[in-house]
Amino acid sequence: MGKINKNYLNLDKKIENIENLLAEDEKILWQGSPNKSAYFWTRFLNKLQFVIIWLVVDITFIAVLIASKVTFPIPVIIALCAFFALHLIPVWIWIYGLVKARKNSENLKYYITSQRVIISDSTAGLNIYSIYYKEITSINVNISRLDRKYNVGDVYITSTKNTKILEDILEPYEVTATLQKFIGKLNTNFNKDAN
């Protein structure tokens, strides 16, 4: 059984380094972050078809209003502008996601230690997600066409609680093999203890 790291719950100390969260016998075996280009283009292509259809419908409606050459009173024009500004919220959200994608990719870090997987996300504050090997129920790799272009992939780690994704990482098969090796060791030790 590992010793507890006394710094883990020290709330007065600022967490500047992930090593401050590790147990004394825990070691970082791999660390990585998303490929910035792949991360951005994944966000760009995500829901792009929906955004294009949404824009075409709104632009067509606006063009029909303008082409009708009907003069609208000022309050109606203001109401129409407000309506379309609100109606285009899905497009604004998509654009905001693109602007934030670059920053998000810089703030997302992945760690595989001798005891768990750690995902550190400092996009909004500092969120640290830990998945201990004994909680992992499955590991899957997904490599899309875009991922192939950048030689990256996504590793889906499903635990008893939820699923976390190591997005757009280099060498996803090697990372998966490393995880499966540790999960296999854990299961072997568990089976020995059970007998």
Automatic annotation (TrEMBL):
Membrane-traversing stretches: 48-68, 74-99
Pfam families cross-referenced by the UniProt entry: bPH_2
Keyword Metal-binding: no
The keyword Coiled coil appears for this protein: yes
Segments forming domain YdbS-like PH: 107-164
Keywords recorded for this protein, A-Z: Coiled coil, Membrane, Transmembrane, Transmembrane helix
Coiled-coil region: 1-28
Name the UniProt record assigns to this protein: PH domain-containing protein
Organism of derivation: Candidatus Caccopulliclostridium gallistercoris
Source lineage: Bacteria, Bacillati, Bacillota, Clostridia, Candidatus Caccopulliclostridium
